C-alpha cells in the first residue's frame, strides 16, 4: 500500500515538473518572437518604472500601459537622436522635446514611449526618450 502511494506522489511530482518546464519553454519562445524595440516588447519587465516616467514638460505620464519599451538608438551627426522602429524598418528621429535624462532606468539601454507604429497610419509620435548613458 505505501509503495502505491509513493508511486502516485512521484507521478504527481513528475507531472508538475513537466508542466512548469512547458510553461518556461512557452515564455522563452514568446520572448524570442519579440523583436527588440517592437511595440510592447520589453514593456512588462519595467512597467512599474514606466508608470513614473514624466515627459520633460512635467505634465501627465509617458506611459499609457503598453507604449514604452527598450529600443536601439543612435546619435546623428548633428547630435540628435534616432530610434530604430522595427515595424517601419527604419530609424525615426526623436524630437528634442522628448529627450530626457540618459540611462533613466539604470540598465544601459535606451527607452522610448510612443504611439503604436502602424504602417496604415502616417502619424507617429514619440512622447519620451531616455538615451543610453553615453552618446557613443
Structure description:
This protein has 136 residues and is α+β, with helices and mostly antiparallel strands. The chain folds into 2 domains: 1-33; 43-130, no CATH class. It has helices spanning 2-33, 43-50, and strands at 68-71, 73-75, 81-85, 90-93, 110-114, 126-130. The strands form 2 sheets. A 3-stranded antiparallel β-sheet has the order 1-5-6. Strands 2-3-4 form a 3-stranded antiparallel β-sheet, with no helix packed on it. A hairpin with a 4-residue loop joins strand 3 (81-85) and strand 4.
- Overall shape: it is elongated
Query: How many domain units?
Result: 2
Q: Please give the order of strands in the largest beta sheet.
A: 1-5-6
| Derived structural class | alpha+beta
Number of helices: 2
Mean pLDDT: 80
State the share of residues found in helices, binned by percent: 25-40%
Question: Tell me about the biggest sheet?
Answer: 3 strands, antiparallel
Gyration radius from CA atoms, angstroms? 21 Å
Whole-Å distance between the termini?
Answer: 69 Å
How do the SSEs run, as a string of H and E? HHEEEEEE
Tell how many strands the DSSP assignment holds.
6
The proportion of residues in beta strands is: 15-25%
Poorly predicted tracts of residues: 17-32
List the helices and strands and how they pair.
Elements: H1 2-33, H2 43-50, E1 68-71, E2 73-75, E3 81-85, E4 90-93, E5 110-114, E6 126-130
